[in-house]
Design goal:
The chain has 308 residues and is of the alpha+beta class. The chain folds into two domains: 209 residues, Roll (Pnp Oxidase, Chain A), CATH 2.30.110.10; 70 residues, Helicase, Ruva Protein, domain 3 (Orthogonal Bundle). It has ten helices and 14 strands. It binds flavin mononucleotide.
């Protein structure tokens, strides 16, 4: 017999039928008059994380919201990650009443905004960012995906079909936005921790949000102590890596000391890593890869990553 109960799956199941931990961001967008409007959002997550020409986030929102309408018009937004202080949460919940116009709510919003770094550097008009945000992702909506470039703002009482599957107007009252990441901004203290390696005390205090429940409250909790869990690294034997390396190419070979440097590479990634090494060797007229060449290949890879 199952140890679980079977719950009904209803609209907004993530907050009506589940306990689903979510981030809390304030999304800033540009209004028609050039001012910045802000709205709180939680259904936002990484979407393209690797293997594409760019990185992207995915936002799921009501298509009549100021945020959606501004995105349809200008394509620009900033995702501001706020701290977990109850005062901050109180402030941002004030921005969530559906139908409030930016002119109505923004004058009562007590958090300061500053010019975006992109705007400062390039002069391109961008939404302002929250000065007290811990980190900000500046984004551009990829309207060319899923044919969404024909979606226009202006229909506040629901859009008629046809609908897109995953980008732009996706239902009568819903929209999804695939947001290309243009810039990640972070307060210096947290940025330094990322560059130098984080310790438990370095993590910022971000809230965990469980959504709107009982037709009354937004539920969230504050950050608690960070813990770590060590990944048990499974090192392959030299013989098993040698087996794969000897079959990677007819002409390019690997010395034992070269293979020793990749014993920790999970088996599924090994062909890709070996192929990268072989490609480098062919470009550089090298037929034997030793530990020295592996170091050069690794340095090159790190530099390419840093450039991105
Ligand atoms: C913490 C929090 C998270 C929210 N997350 C979402 C969300 O992910 N998607 C959505 O459509 N509405 C969400 N809402 C409701 C919107 O904030 C609400 O529709 C608001 O009117 C949007 O503001 P805007 O019209 O200025 O964009 C959330 C509200 C709060 C307080």
């Amino acid at each position: 017999m199952s140890s679980f109960k079977n719950l009904r799956i209803v609209d907004n199941f993530y907050q009506t039928s589940l306990y689903f931990p979510m981030p809390t961001v304030v999304i800033s967008t540009l209004c028609e008059d050039g001012t910045t409007s802000c709205g709180p959002y939680s259904l936002i997550q990484p979407y393209y994380v690797a293997g594409k020409d760019y990185y992207a986030m995915l936002l799921n929102c009501r298509n009549s919201s100021n945020t959606a309408q501004n995105l349809l018009r200008t394509g620009k937004c900033a995702l501001n990650f706020v701290n977990d202080k109850p005062k901050t949460f109180h402030e941002i919940v004030k921005l969530s009443w559906p139908g409030d116009t930016p002119a109505e709510k923004m004058p009562k919003f007590n958090m300061s905004l500053e010019t975006s770094l992109i705007e400062e550097e390039t002069g391109e008009k961008r939404p302002m960012v929250l000065t007290d945000a811990i980190e900000v992702i500046e984004c551009t909506w990829m309207r060319e995906l899923d044919g969404a470039d024909k979606d226009v703002p202006g229909q506040l009482n629901g859009y008629e079909p046809p609908y897109h599957d995953f980008n732009g107007i996706t239902s009568k009252f819903g929209a999804h936005f695939i947001l290309r990441i243009d810039r990640i901004l972070m307060k210096e203290k947290y940025a330094n921790a990322i560059v130098n390696g984080v310790k438990a005390g370095d993590f910022p205090s971000l809230p965990v949000d469980y959504g709107y429940r009982d037709s009354k409250n937004f539920w969230f909790h504050r950050k608690s102590r960070m813990r770590t869990e060590l990944l048990p690294i499974r090192a392959a034997s030299l013989e098993s890596v040698r087996y794969a390396a000897d079959r990677a190419d007819d002409t390019v070979k690997f010395s034992d000391d070269a293979l020793m440097t990749i014993l920790n590479v999970p088996r599924v990634f090994l062909p890709l890593v070996l192929k990268g090494c072989v490609d480098w060797a062919k470009e550089n007229n090298c037929t034997l890869i030793t530990e020295k060449e592996m170091k050069i290949i690794n340095d090159k890879r790190s530099k390419e990553k840093a450039k991105k």
